[in-house]
């Protein structure tokens, strides 16, 4: 449904803006492009999104709640790296603050916390942390998903969407088309067989 374009310079998945524009132009109308950023100034994010034609951006760093209002015209996915109960509490406080400022994220993404890493780690959120999450109607589950485990994780967590990076690759940054297809089929099968 969505294709992620990673603009984080530290990532093996980083895509050059010119290539990203070509990818966006080639997408079917039913597929949305999401730009992933880590701690970039809002003006820079907005300018790149407008230039490339991105309607959705994923903020995957320490961006403050105030940044959301500066990106008001874009659909915003805010990622939180969850490694403890304190991290869940910090996420809840962040979301309250953003609402108070008049602009919460459109979707909340939860990813594993791995010290020193921004994301794309292939690590999963610990199971005991999920019951601590507040109700999030548009929860995107990420972190360590693969074609082999996504159905079980979807059945257990019941997210609105799932997101995968390293779990469908043959090497860092190299998507494996067979694994991408297998992932989508497994994720959809979990939804269609849900009681
Ligand atoms: O994929 C990356 O390299 C990346 C870099 C910096 C921030 C986020 C990144 N990816 C996001 O991380 C999660 C989990 O990825 P994985 O499936 O465990 O490899 C996901 O939301 C990616 O979009």
From TrEMBL:
<keyword id="KW-0413">Isomerase</keyword>
<keyword id="KW-0057">Aromatic amino acid biosynthesis</keyword>
<dbReference type="GO" id="GO:0004640">
    <property type="term" value="F:phosphoribosylanthranilate isomerase activity"/>
</dbReference>
<protein>
    <recommendedName>
        <fullName>N-(5'-phosphoribosyl)anthranilate isomerase</fullName>
        <ecNumber>5.3.1.24</ecNumber>
    </recommendedName>
</protein>
<comment type="similarity">
    <text>Belongs to the TrpF family.</text>
</comment>
<keyword id="KW-0822">Tryptophan biosynthesis</keyword>
<dbReference type="InterPro" id="IPR013785">
    <property type="entry name" value="Aldolase_TIM"/>
</dbReference>
<dbReference type="InterPro" id="IPR001240">
    <property type="entry name" value="PRAI_dom"/>
</dbReference>
<keyword id="KW-0732">Signal</keyword>
<comment type="pathway">
    <text>Amino-acid biosynthesis; L-tryptophan biosynthesis; L-tryptophan from chorismate: step 3/5.</text>
</comment>
<feature type="domain" description="N-(5'phosphoribosyl) anthranilate isomerase (PRAI)">
    <location>
        <begin position="1"/>
        <end position="186"/>
    </location>
</feature>
<keyword id="KW-0028">Amino-acid biosynthesis</keyword>
<dbReference type="InterPro" id="IPR011060">
    <property type="entry name" value="RibuloseP-bd_barrel"/>
</dbReference>
<dbReference type="InterPro" id="IPR044643">
    <property type="entry name" value="TrpF_fam"/>
</dbReference>
<dbReference type="Pfam" id="PF00697">
    <property type="entry name" value="PRAI"/>
</dbReference>
<dbReference type="GO" id="GO:0000162">
    <property type="term" value="P:L-tryptophan biosynthetic process"/>
</dbReference>
